Amino acid sequence: MLALFVVMPLIIAAFIALLGNELPEPIKYIALVASLISLALVLVVGFNAASSQSTTWFYLIWYQFQITTSTAPLNMLLLLIVAVMTPLVITYSIGFMRVPSEQSRYYFETCIFAAAMMLFAIAGDFITMLMGWGLLSLASYLLIGFWHGKDGASSAARKAVTVALIGDVLMMIAVVMVWDLYHTFSFAAIISAPAAPAAWLPLLFVLIAAFAKSAQFPFNEWLPDAMEGPTPTSAFLHSSTMVKAGVFVVAVLLPLFAKLHLLNVILFVGIVTTIIGVTNALTETRIKRILAYSTIEDLGLMFIALGLNAVVAAMMLFVVQTFYKSLLFMSAGAIMKANDDEDRIDLVQSGAAGKPLLIATVIGVLSIAGIFPLSGFFGKASVYASAATDMPVYLVLLAVGFASSVYIFRWLLLPLKKPAAQQSRKTANFSFIPMQMLLPIYVLAALVVGASLACLRLPSYLSAYGQAAPLSLIGIAAETIVAVLGIAVAYVYFKRGAKKTFANRLAQELFYNGVFVNAFYASVAGLVVAASSAVDALDYELYRFVKMLAGAVLGFAEMLRHVENGQANSYMLVFLLGILAMVIIFAVVML
Amino acid sequence: MMPIIIWMLSVPLAALALIFLLGHDFSRKIATASTFLGLMLTLFVLVVSIADHGVNVAEAYPYIGSLMISLSFRINAVSLVLLLMSSIVLLAAVIAGNPENERQKLSCALIVLFQIASVGLFTSANLFFFFVFWDVGVIAMFFMINILGSANRKNASMNFLVYEVFASALLLLGILLLYFYTPLHSFDMQYIIANASRIPQPTQELIFLVLFLAFMTNMPLFPMHFWLPDAHTEASTQGSMILSGVLTKFGAFGMLMLFAMLPIASKYAPYAVVLAAVSAFYSVFVLMKQTDIKRIVAYSTVVEMGIIMIGIGSLNSFGTYGAVYAMLAQGLGVSLMFLSVGCLKYTFGERDIKVLRGTVVESEFTTYAFIAAAVANLGLPLTAGFVADILMFMGSVQTFGLYGALPLIAMILLGAYLYFVINKSMLSSREHSAAVNFVGDDQHIGYLILMAALFLFGIMPFIILNLARL
């Protein structure tokens, strides 16, 4: 229960932001201070609270609904990541979001987003988890569609929220079904209980929901579109909030998936998604979208590790990915800011003012490529090591490693064009970038380097969840060779902007279109619309039938109406006929 | 203890008389006072009940002794929830529901009349008065559509009346059957519940069928839903809020009573649930073809009522209390939706998604109120809908297994289309409709009341649900 207090500062700040519409200036600093208080609370309260606490939310007849918070190592890891990222993102936002009228809404939504993820991070039972899960969907929807005047933001937000809604509802179905089997919501109790064989179905729903949240195949396409949101939101969403939720919930429940033989599903989807992410990233032409596909690939790698039952390896990548991905998003935002907010691959990255930014960016790029001793190396190495006994998977991982170092250097090298090479294009203005945007980038660059040390400590911190596969020298060598090879290929192919895309048209078409995932969405939507048209036509016919019945009643009444026409002679006639009939009947009966 | 239910009934009665006496200038103030007092009295009952750890209010006065008809009332946990919901909705409707300021006297009088009906129906412990208050509600609603509605109101109101009178007639038939087949010939619910098992089986089946038809017409469930879209589209904003928020709950409340009363009902519950699921899916598909936002919201009521029926039909405490809580959540949510749609229509003169664009630019609060209501109805955590969904589906999965959870798929379709509507007409401002009017503070207060209630009951469900604790 104590752990719930870590979200309080952010919630209070959110409401101050909402009400402080007239005062755009103080709002951002209030949000920043609140996020710092949250961080302090995480460090003080989070690490000192008992590992699992629950309090009764309400009673129903005899059943207690509880709010359980957990500060087990896994939860604390995510909580700490979110708590560290929130002030960085808010600082960056102070520099990035300059329009006064947007401040109130932006900081409200961002604070709610962060608070929802913190709530999710400390959840120790399904109910609390589901709360964070659902609030994340709403907050991300509002943030992705934040610039609703912009072309595409609205449809991107709708795509994101529709996928998230599928995830939310499936998670709700899973939660009630799990409750029906175990009669408890608590993660700890469910994991330690003997596995109910029927639990495979709700757990499959949990998996699908997690895939929807974490942009895994076939739900991967909302994530690149979500780039329409403000860049700080992208940095937040891709590193620590939202997409990490799916990975995290699978990691927490992994013993259950292992018991019920669902690991292969995770592994398979992870591999498919990784390949999709990499191939898309190789062919994409906008810098933020390349990073988005890169996130899909990273998440796929985490799922591969989880599919191999290697929680520690997955969490290593989970931690380091946060820092390098948010670093790259933030520098992408800064580079774009210097280039009039354009999002193309051939932006300009030059000039003395851009040098420190460039160094920080290169650190992030090298980390993604997996170069020793940056933290990305350790994250990837541990995932590779966990696959060492599974040769096909290992080969896929090596190929992916090669491709990811190609695409990330393509990402880096294309903007590095010298001004001379790009006739008559105006140069970028790097002195324009405010300090509030650069500071978090430098901090993150330091964290990318520093996280290497954390990676050495992480296996012992997470020892309760299993052992990390030891790194072998051959594995490290293979990883490094592949990465360096990728860098070399990228350099030869793309140096100084010689080419922007690959030569092969077919590959370009196929990969660029996301392996037709979007076409698949369109066909599903078409199916629903067709069903809806059919039912609507049926509804119309039914209503016509009902009206026809009413018409029949009216027709009968119309017929009967003539009986009482008010004419005495016809009444007389009927009267006489009646008497006649009576006499006849009487006579027949008597005789 | 003082006769609180009599107070609850006499406040609107006095208000009604005052509206007719004092006339146009004071009518809105009187109606606001009446609904506000109604809410306060309900809250008083709630507070007393929390202090007593249980709801226990019963009042009885002799009326027609020879026919065993007494003026008897009781409040239990279920009726307290519905009383709370209806008094909040009515208060919001009086304060905010009429931005045009048209025919204040009549609309206020009808709302106050409806207040009598809803208080009476939810507290009635006697089937005779249950029927009387039911019809009072239907009549009040009929005039809200027939006189206060929009262009096609005559047709829609007659449609409404035909269906509702059909339901009333069946209700009366069912009540009379119950009266004649119970050993002591009584209208008293308590007595009927205790003795219903002594009614012969075939008669029980007949009574169940008759009453089920009556209640499902009011709820409504497919295929008795045809009155609802037209009635909602044509009714005034206040009318729609009350119709969808409170009147449809009459039927659902009756369903709860029916399933608690007749032992035979449990045999037919699975069929009722199948019908409800069909109703939910059917109406969500019809909903997806609509372009008038008010019609969309109207069909969403049919979807939600179908899901509520699933909760009722699962026949366990989770499903039942979940359904009651869903009635609370849906009543508040849908009336907020109708209120904001009414204000959009007032602001832009339009509510067709093919024409309406970027409402967020000119009326931000209204747009966000609609979004809040939509996500609350979809079961956003921290709103009452979340608690309701969890409880209902825990109940239905307990009874029906996986199949009990599948109707949630209808929620995906409903949500997908609602988000489509929101993004097409509200949250995309590349182009935007021009406002012709602006809503005032009253409307904002109305949004705030309903939103606050949605979040209050979502964050603190214990204030209500702990009352049913054993």
Task: Give a structural overview.
- The complex is a heterodimer of chains A (591) and B (470).
- Chain A is an all-alpha fold.
- Among the domains of chain A are: 248 residues, no CATH class; 66 residues, no CATH class.
- Chain A contains 23 helices and two strands.
- A two-stranded antiparallel ribbon of chain A has the order 1-2.
- In chain A, helix 10 runs antiparallel to helix 15.
- Chain A is elongated.
- The N and C termini of chain A lie far apart (98 Å).
- About 1% of the residues of chain A have low confidence.
- Chain B has one domain.
- The radius of gyration of chain B is 21 Å and the shape is globular.
- Chain B has 20 helices and two strands.
- Chain B has 470 residues and is mainly alpha-helical.
- The model of chain B has no long low-confidence stretch (mean pLDDT 90).
- A two-stranded antiparallel sheet of chain B has the order 1-2.
- In chain B, strand 1 and strand 2 form a beta hairpin.
- Chains A and B meet through strand 1, helix 5, helix 6 and helix 22 of A and helix 11, helix 13, helix 16 and helix 18 of B.
Shape of chain A: elongated
Contiguous runs where pLDDT drops below 50 for at least 5 residues of chain A: 418-424
Total strand segments of chain A: 2
Class derived from helix and strand content of chain B = mainly alpha
Beta content of chain B comes to: under 5%
- Secondary structure: helix percent of chain B: over 70%
Q: Kindly state the percentage of residues in helix of chain A.
A: over 70%
Q: Please state how the strands of the largest beta sheet of chain B are arranged side by side.
A: 1-2
The main sheet of chain A orders its strands as 1-2
